[in-house]
Design brief:
Elements (H helix, E strand, L loop, with lengths): L6 H29 L7 H5 L9 H23 L7 H24 L3 H25 L1 H27 L18
């Protein structure tokens, strides 16, 4: 049984993995955002000053869904590369960057930890870049599929930084709280 898989067998292996990884990664990403109340509907987030280059809310949904799909396809390529040298390390890096990704929304939107979220996104960028490089060493296409995600993380980190800069004390902001003292 020392035969190499045929191209059609490799394609079928990739498709089987993709049928699991793409929906799973998209579902995990959406769940993280939904459970943490991410987006413009979040009252705390609505109160924050945003940079002029902040995209409309719908852009984030479209971009993240597309990025999660690309990430899922990249993962499927690596999972299908059984026996590839460095595969274990690549998968470990993927899990690390994905855990950081899933932690960012709850930290930012639910815990209101803007500075902490900036640290997480910086670590996520490093882990995602390392993942993309390792994926590319195993399957060139897998590494290339990670590039839009890595670039978006740079943009997201700049947004996170600018929100932190524009909103000192954002962690203490309580939405909808006006003055409670009545002057007579």
């Amino acid at each position: 049984m020392g035969q190499i898989a045929s191209p059609s067998q490799l394609r079928m292996s990739f498709l089987r993995w993709a049928l699991v990884t793409v929906p799973l990664v998209i579902l995990l990403g959406i769940a993280s955002g939904q459970l943490s109340g991410s987006g413009y509907e979040n009252p705390w987030f609505a109160e924050l000053q945003k940079p002029d280059f902040m995209p409309a809310g719908w852009v984030f949904g479209v971009v993240w869904t597309a990025l999660y799909a690309l990430i899922g396809f990249a993962l499927a390529l690596i999972l299908g590369a059984r026996g590839a040298r460095g595969r274990g390390l690549a998968l470990m890096l993927f899990v690390i960057q994905m855990a950081l990704n899933l932690a960012w929304s709850p930290l930012f939107f639910a815990a209101h930890q803007v500075a902490g979220a900036l640290v997480v996104i910086a670590l996520m960028f490093v882990a995602a870049l390392a993942t993309a490089i390792r994926f590319g060493m195993i399957r060139r296409l897998a590494g290339l599929l990670m590039v839009p995600y890595v670039l978006w993380l740079l943009f997201a980190a700049v947004l996170n930084y600018e929100i932190m800069r524009l909103n000192p004390g954002a962690e203490t902001l309580v939405p909808g709280q006006g003055a409670t003292q009545i002057q007579l």
